[in-house]
Amino acid sequence: MIVWLNGTHGAGKTTTSVLVQQLLPDARVLDAEKVGEVLMDIKPGLPATDNFQHWEPWRPLVVETARRVLEYAGGTLVMPMTVLVESYWREISGGLAGHGIPIRHFVLHADQGTLRDRIQNDEAMGPSSFRFAYLEPYAEAARTWLHDEAEVIDTTFITADQAAQLIADSVLGRRECVHRAGMCPTDDVY
Questions:
Q1: Could you tell me where the beta strands, DSSP code E, fall in the chain?
Q2: How far apart are CA 99 and CA 114, in angstroms?
Q3: In terms of Cα–Cα distance, which of 138, 119, 160, 128 is closest to 13?
Q4: CA distance 53 to 131
Q5: How many beta carbons lie within 10 A of that of residue 114, not counting itself?
Q6: What is the reported pLDDT for 9?
Q7: Cα–Cα distance, 120 to 104 (Å, whole number)
Q8: Splitting the chain (190 residues) into consecutive groups of 10 residues, what average pLDDT does each group show?
Q9: Are 111 and 186 in contact (CB under 8 A)?
């Protein structure tokens, strides 16, 4: 199984993924960004882009990497990765489904003010214009398709530990802890 943690920069995907991994039996974290980093290291470089996800090889390589790791090691892969382009998500999720790999798709959500504050005050990375640039595309994706495709966890007022516990409880079927989107993310969505 794959537990995909989506959402924009500052929502807490990386931190939460490590915590989710610790709560699920036989789980590992696979950061799909590393696949993009491999492509970025090709010399001479691939055609210029502002995001490695636009390179056609990235999406099938993510699918193939996840498939091969699961085939080799089994268990659950926790994959923290922002995917805001619907056709890219369909390609990845469809590719995984084509290999019979179930996906639990979660979106870690926070309101725009919280996201801006987290990005601005990130002690590890510092403020990042790249990360700020994805706030509006995230908001658009959330409004148009993303929240309909995932279980939404609002991280505005909860800790990463709490978000991880909600995700683990949902994956393990311990309780109905998140709502399918269709309502405002701040209305009763964990």
A1: 2-6, 27-29, 76-80, 103-109, 151-154, 179-180
A2: 38
A3: 160
A4: 15
A5: 16
A6: 84
A7: 30
A8: 94 95 97 96 96 97 98 98 97 98 97 91 82 93 97 95 97 66 37
A9: yes
